[in-house]
Protein backbone atom coordinates (compact mmCIF):
# COMPACT_ATOMS: atom_id res chain seq x y z
CA UNK A 1 0.00 0.00 0.00
CA UNK A 2 1.31 3.42 -0.94
CA UNK A 3 0.06 6.41 1.03
CA UNK A 4 0.98 9.71 -0.54
CA UNK A 5 0.42 13.17 0.96
CA UNK A 6 -2.70 12.09 2.83
CA UNK A 7 -4.58 14.71 4.88
CA UNK A 8 -7.89 14.53 6.68
CA UNK A 9 -9.64 17.52 8.21
CA UNK A 10 -12.89 16.76 10.03
CA UNK A 11 -15.85 19.14 9.55
CA UNK A 12 -15.16 20.58 13.05
CA UNK A 13 -11.70 21.69 11.87
CA UNK A 14 -9.60 18.97 13.56
CA UNK A 15 -6.66 18.01 11.35
CA UNK A 16 -6.53 14.29 12.17
CA UNK A 17 -4.09 13.36 9.38
CA UNK A 18 -1.50 15.88 8.26
CA UNK A 19 0.28 15.27 4.91
CA UNK A 20 1.20 11.67 5.57
CA UNK A 21 3.27 9.56 3.18
CA UNK A 22 4.08 5.93 3.90
CA UNK A 23 4.71 2.59 2.17
CA UNK A 24 3.45 -0.57 3.81
CA UNK A 25 4.67 -3.70 2.13
CA UNK A 26 5.24 -6.74 4.31
CA UNK A 27 4.68 -8.47 7.65
CA UNK A 28 3.27 -6.56 10.60
CA UNK A 29 3.61 -2.79 10.35
CA UNK A 30 3.13 -1.05 13.71
CA UNK A 31 1.50 2.34 14.01
CA UNK A 32 2.39 3.68 17.44
CA UNK A 33 0.99 6.86 18.92
CA UNK A 34 -0.76 8.33 21.95
CA UNK A 35 -4.54 8.67 22.14
CA UNK A 36 -5.72 11.29 19.68
CA UNK A 37 -2.67 10.87 17.42
CA UNK A 38 -4.86 10.00 14.43
CA UNK A 39 -4.39 6.22 14.27
CA UNK A 40 -8.08 5.33 13.96
CA UNK A 41 -8.68 8.21 11.53
CA UNK A 42 -5.90 6.93 9.30
CA UNK A 43 -7.16 3.37 9.43
CA UNK A 44 -10.76 4.32 8.64
CA UNK A 45 -9.49 6.29 5.68
CA UNK A 46 -7.30 3.44 4.43
CA UNK A 47 -10.16 0.94 4.56
CA UNK A 48 -12.38 3.28 2.57
CA UNK A 49 -14.82 4.24 5.35
CA UNK A 50 -14.10 7.94 5.06
CA UNK A 51 -12.70 10.15 2.36
CA UNK A 52 -9.51 12.15 2.97
CA UNK A 53 -9.40 15.89 2.33
CA UNK A 54 -6.42 15.39 0.01
CA UNK A 55 -3.78 12.88 -0.99
CA UNK A 56 -3.72 9.46 -2.54
CA UNK A 57 -3.79 5.84 -1.41
CA UNK A 58 -2.82 3.09 -3.85
CA UNK A 59 -3.48 -0.55 -3.11
CA UNK A 60 -2.55 -3.13 -5.77
CA UNK A 61 -2.15 -0.08 -8.04
CA UNK A 62 -5.81 0.83 -7.51
CA UNK A 63 -6.64 4.31 -6.21
CA UNK A 64 -8.79 3.37 -3.22
CA UNK A 65 -10.20 6.85 -2.79
CA UNK A 66 -11.74 6.68 -6.25
CA UNK A 67 -12.65 3.03 -5.87
CA UNK A 68 -13.31 2.28 -2.15
CA UNK A 69 -15.20 -0.91 -3.04
CA UNK A 70 -11.98 -2.48 -4.29
CA UNK A 71 -10.34 -2.22 -0.88
CA UNK A 72 -13.49 -3.22 0.99
CA UNK A 73 -13.55 -6.46 -1.01
CA UNK A 74 -9.88 -7.30 -0.59
CA UNK A 75 -9.13 -6.24 2.95
CA UNK A 76 -9.91 -7.29 6.53
CA UNK A 77 -10.54 -4.68 9.23
CA UNK A 78 -10.86 -4.92 12.99
CA UNK A 79 -12.17 -1.53 14.18
CA UNK A 80 -11.24 -0.14 17.58
CA UNK A 81 -14.88 -0.47 18.62
CA UNK A 82 -17.50 -2.66 17.06
CA UNK A 83 -21.06 -3.59 17.91
CA UNK A 84 -22.45 -7.09 17.65
CA UNK A 85 -25.99 -8.23 17.00
CA UNK A 86 -27.56 -9.45 20.23
CA UNK A 87 -28.81 -13.05 20.16
CA UNK A 88 -26.40 -14.07 17.40
CA UNK A 89 -23.82 -16.68 18.28
CA UNK A 90 -20.23 -16.59 17.01
CA UNK A 91 -20.86 -18.95 14.09
CA UNK A 92 -24.07 -17.20 13.00
CA UNK A 93 -22.49 -13.76 13.17
CA UNK A 94 -19.48 -14.88 11.12
CA UNK A 95 -21.84 -16.48 8.61
CA UNK A 96 -23.79 -13.23 8.33
CA UNK A 97 -20.57 -11.28 7.78
CA UNK A 98 -19.24 -13.88 5.34
CA UNK A 99 -22.37 -13.52 3.21
CA UNK A 100 -21.95 -9.73 3.25
CA UNK A 101 -18.37 -10.27 2.09
CA UNK A 102 -19.63 -12.28 -0.85
CA UNK A 103 -18.68 -15.81 0.24
CA UNK A 104 -21.55 -17.56 -1.50
CA UNK A 105 -20.79 -21.29 -1.40
CA UNK A 106 -22.51 -22.63 1.72
CA UNK A 107 -20.34 -25.69 2.41
CA UNK A 108 -17.11 -23.73 1.80
CA UNK A 109 -18.42 -20.99 4.08
CA UNK A 110 -18.99 -23.44 6.90
CA UNK A 111 -15.52 -24.96 6.55
CA UNK A 112 -13.93 -21.52 6.36
CA UNK A 113 -15.73 -20.23 9.46
CA UNK A 114 -14.88 -23.32 11.49
CA UNK A 115 -11.26 -22.98 10.40
CA UNK A 116 -11.17 -19.33 11.49
CA UNK A 117 -12.81 -20.10 14.85
CA UNK A 118 -10.05 -22.65 15.46
CA UNK A 119 -7.40 -20.14 14.43
CA UNK A 120 -8.55 -17.72 17.14
CA UNK A 121 -9.22 -20.43 19.75
CA UNK A 122 -12.95 -19.90 19.80
CA UNK A 123 -14.06 -23.23 18.33
CA UNK A 124 -15.34 -24.27 21.76
CA UNK A 125 -17.54 -21.16 21.81
CA UNK A 126 -18.99 -21.26 18.30
CA UNK A 127 -22.56 -21.48 19.56
CA UNK A 128 -22.21 -18.90 22.32
CA UNK A 129 -23.74 -15.45 21.85
CA UNK A 130 -20.96 -12.98 21.06
CA UNK A 131 -22.32 -10.23 23.30
CA UNK A 132 -21.64 -12.51 26.32
CA UNK A 133 -17.92 -12.80 25.39
CA UNK A 134 -15.15 -11.35 27.58
CA UNK A 135 -13.09 -8.48 26.11
CA UNK A 136 -10.35 -10.81 24.92
CA UNK A 137 -12.75 -13.29 23.34
CA UNK A 138 -14.51 -10.45 21.61
CA UNK A 139 -11.26 -9.20 20.13
CA UNK A 140 -10.40 -12.72 18.97
CA UNK A 141 -13.83 -12.89 17.37
CA UNK A 142 -13.02 -9.56 15.74
CA UNK A 143 -9.81 -11.03 14.31
CA UNK A 144 -11.76 -14.00 12.91
CA UNK A 145 -14.18 -11.68 11.11
CA UNK A 146 -11.25 -9.65 9.74
CA UNK A 147 -9.85 -12.87 8.27
CA UNK A 148 -13.06 -13.80 6.45
CA UNK A 149 -12.34 -14.34 2.78
CA UNK A 150 -8.60 -14.71 3.48
CA UNK A 151 -7.63 -11.09 2.72
CA UNK A 152 -3.97 -10.35 2.05
CA UNK A 153 -4.10 -7.01 3.85
CA UNK A 154 -5.46 -6.70 7.38
CA UNK A 155 -5.96 -3.55 9.40
CA UNK A 156 -6.29 -3.95 13.19
CA UNK A 157 -6.98 -0.96 15.41
CA UNK A 158 -5.71 -1.32 19.00
CA UNK A 159 -6.64 -4.99 19.34
CA UNK A 160 -5.10 -5.39 22.81
CA UNK A 161 -6.32 -2.17 24.47
CA UNK A 162 -7.73 -2.92 27.91
CA UNK A 163 -6.93 -6.65 27.88
CA UNK A 164 -5.24 -8.57 30.68
CA UNK A 165 -1.66 -9.83 30.01
CA UNK A 166 -2.73 -13.37 29.17
CA UNK A 167 -5.33 -12.28 26.61
CA UNK A 168 -2.92 -9.71 25.23
CA UNK A 169 -0.36 -12.46 24.64
CA UNK A 170 -2.98 -14.59 22.94
CA UNK A 171 -3.97 -11.81 20.58
CA UNK A 172 -0.32 -11.05 19.85
CA UNK A 173 0.31 -14.74 19.17
CA UNK A 174 -2.55 -14.83 16.66
CA UNK A 175 -1.37 -11.59 15.03
CA UNK A 176 2.16 -12.89 14.70
CA UNK A 177 0.84 -15.98 12.92
CA UNK A 178 -1.42 -13.90 10.67
CA UNK A 179 1.53 -11.64 9.83
CA UNK A 180 3.62 -14.51 8.48
CA UNK A 181 1.61 -14.70 5.27
CA UNK A 182 -0.05 -11.31 5.05
CA UNK A 183 0.45 -7.61 5.44
CA UNK A 184 -0.94 -6.43 8.77
CA UNK A 185 -1.28 -2.80 9.73
CA UNK A 186 -1.50 -2.72 13.52
CA UNK A 187 -2.21 0.38 15.58
CA UNK A 188 -1.50 0.54 19.28
CA UNK A 189 -0.51 2.87 22.07
CA UNK A 190 1.48 0.02 23.65
CA UNK A 191 5.18 0.24 22.85
CA UNK A 192 5.71 -3.34 23.98
CA UNK A 193 3.27 -4.72 21.39
CA UNK A 194 5.16 -3.01 18.58
CA UNK A 195 8.49 -4.22 19.94
CA UNK A 196 7.25 -7.80 20.11
CA UNK A 197 5.45 -7.96 16.78
CA UNK A 198 6.65 -5.49 14.22
CA UNK A 199 9.58 -5.52 11.82
CA UNK A 200 8.66 -2.01 10.68
CA UNK A 201 6.94 0.78 12.53
CA UNK A 202 5.92 4.41 12.45
CA UNK A 203 5.32 6.87 15.25
CA UNK A 204 2.29 9.08 14.84
CA UNK A 205 1.70 12.24 16.83
CA UNK A 206 -0.88 15.00 16.30
CA UNK A 207 -1.77 13.64 12.88
CA UNK A 208 1.86 13.71 11.74
CA UNK A 209 4.22 10.88 10.96
CA UNK A 210 7.22 11.44 13.22
CA UNK A 211 9.46 8.62 12.05
CA UNK A 212 9.45 5.22 10.34
CA UNK A 213 11.91 2.35 10.59
CA UNK A 214 12.61 -0.96 12.23
CA UNK A 215 12.32 -0.93 16.04
CA UNK A 216 15.82 -2.45 16.41
CA UNK A 217 17.45 0.15 14.17
CA UNK A 218 15.60 3.02 15.83
CA UNK A 219 16.71 1.90 19.29
CA UNK A 220 20.33 1.63 18.08
CA UNK A 221 20.36 5.34 17.34
CA UNK A 222 19.93 6.02 21.07
CA UNK A 223 22.88 3.96 22.27
CA UNK A 224 25.06 5.92 24.70
CA UNK A 225 22.46 8.68 25.05
CA UNK A 226 20.00 7.36 27.62
CA UNK A 227 20.81 7.92 31.29
CA UNK A 228 18.96 7.31 34.52
CA UNK A 229 19.18 7.85 38.25
CA UNK A 230 16.92 7.37 41.25
CA UNK A 231 14.92 10.50 42.02
CA UNK A 232 13.24 12.08 44.99
CA UNK A 233 9.52 11.41 44.72
CA UNK A 234 8.73 15.14 44.58
CA UNK A 235 11.42 15.87 41.97
CA UNK A 236 9.52 16.89 38.86
CA UNK A 237 12.11 18.43 36.53
CA UNK A 238 15.86 18.16 36.44
CA UNK A 239 17.64 21.51 36.56
CA UNK A 240 20.43 20.50 34.15
CA UNK A 241 20.08 21.98 30.66
CA UNK A 242 22.56 19.62 28.97
CA UNK A 243 20.02 16.82 29.19
CA UNK A 244 16.29 16.49 28.67
CA UNK A 245 14.07 14.39 30.87
CA UNK A 246 12.18 11.84 28.81
CA UNK A 247 10.28 10.19 31.61
CA UNK A 248 9.91 9.61 35.29
CA UNK A 249 8.71 6.20 36.32
CA UNK A 250 8.63 3.78 39.20
CA UNK A 251 10.57 0.56 39.53
CA UNK A 252 9.61 -1.51 42.56
CA UNK A 253 8.10 1.56 44.18
CA UNK A 254 11.29 3.58 43.65
CA UNK A 255 11.15 6.69 41.52
CA UNK A 256 13.59 7.00 38.56
CA UNK A 257 14.36 9.82 36.18
CA UNK A 258 15.47 8.95 32.65
CA UNK A 259 17.07 11.57 30.43
CA UNK A 260 18.34 11.96 26.89
CA UNK A 261 21.81 13.48 26.71
CA UNK A 262 24.85 13.29 24.43
CA UNK A 263 27.12 13.23 27.51
CA UNK A 264 26.77 11.74 30.96
CA UNK A 265 24.99 14.13 33.32
CA UNK A 266 26.26 14.17 36.92
CA UNK A 267 25.02 11.28 39.02
CA UNK A 268 23.42 9.40 36.11
CA UNK A 269 24.10 5.86 34.88
CA UNK A 270 24.13 4.76 31.25
CA UNK A 271 21.06 2.73 30.25
CA UNK A 272 20.44 0.24 27.47
CA UNK A 273 17.95 2.12 25.29
CA UNK A 274 14.48 0.67 24.82
CA UNK A 275 11.78 1.33 22.27
CA UNK A 276 9.92 3.19 24.98
CA UNK A 277 12.88 5.58 25.32
CA UNK A 278 12.79 6.09 21.56
CA UNK A 279 9.06 6.71 21.63
CA UNK A 280 9.35 9.41 24.31
CA UNK A 281 12.33 11.04 22.57
CA UNK A 282 10.36 11.14 19.35
CA UNK A 283 7.19 12.51 20.92
CA UNK A 284 9.29 15.19 22.65
CA UNK A 285 11.03 16.12 19.37
CA UNK A 286 14.49 15.17 20.67
CA UNK A 287 15.28 13.04 17.63
N1 LIG B 1 -15.51 11.94 13.58
C1 LIG B 1 -14.70 12.87 14.11
N2 LIG B 1 -15.04 14.18 14.04
C2 LIG B 1 -14.21 15.13 14.53
N3 LIG B 1 -13.03 14.88 15.13
C3 LIG B 1 -12.65 13.60 15.24
C4 LIG B 1 -13.46 12.52 14.74
N4 LIG B 1 -12.82 11.36 14.98
C5 LIG B 1 -11.66 11.68 15.60
N5 LIG B 1 -11.56 13.02 15.76
C6 LIG B 1 -10.41 13.75 16.33
O1 LIG B 1 -9.30 13.48 15.51
C7 LIG B 1 -8.12 13.31 16.29
C8 LIG B 1 -7.54 11.93 16.04
O2 LIG B 1 -8.43 10.95 16.61
P1 LIG B 1 -8.23 9.40 16.38
O3 LIG B 1 -8.02 9.14 14.94
O4 LIG B 1 -9.37 8.70 17.04
O5 LIG B 1 -6.87 9.12 17.18
P2 LIG B 1 -6.30 7.78 17.83
O6 LIG B 1 -7.00 6.64 17.18
O7 LIG B 1 -4.83 7.83 17.54
O8 LIG B 1 -6.59 7.86 19.29
C9 LIG B 1 -8.53 13.57 17.73
O9 LIG B 1 -8.27 14.92 18.01
C10 LIG B 1 -10.02 13.28 17.72
O10 LIG B 1 -10.67 14.00 18.73
MG1 LIG C 1 -8.00 5.09 17.98
From TrEMBL:
The keyword Metal-binding does not apply. SUPFAM superfamilies: P-loop containing nucleoside triphosphate hydrolases (SSF52540). The keyword Transport applies. Gene3D superfamilies: P-loop containing nucleotide triphosphate hydrolases. Keywords: ATP-binding, Nucleotide-binding, Transport. One of its GO terms (molecular function) is ATP binding. PROSITE patterns: ABC_TRANSPORTER_1, ABC_TRANSPORTER_2. Pfam families: ABC_tran (PF00005). InterPro entries: AAA+_ATPase, ABC_transporter-like_ATP-bd, ABC_transporter-like_CS, P-loop_NTPase. Residues 1-231 form the ABC transporter domain. Belongs to the ABC transporter superfamily. This is ABC transporter ATP-binding protein.
Amino acid sequence: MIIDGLSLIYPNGVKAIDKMSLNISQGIFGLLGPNGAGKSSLMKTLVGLQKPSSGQVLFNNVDIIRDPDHIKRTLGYLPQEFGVLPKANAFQLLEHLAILKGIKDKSFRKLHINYLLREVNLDQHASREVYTFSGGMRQRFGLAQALLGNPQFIVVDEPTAGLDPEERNRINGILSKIGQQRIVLLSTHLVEDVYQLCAEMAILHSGKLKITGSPKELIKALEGKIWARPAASDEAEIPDFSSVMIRKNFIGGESWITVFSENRPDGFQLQKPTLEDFYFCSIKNLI
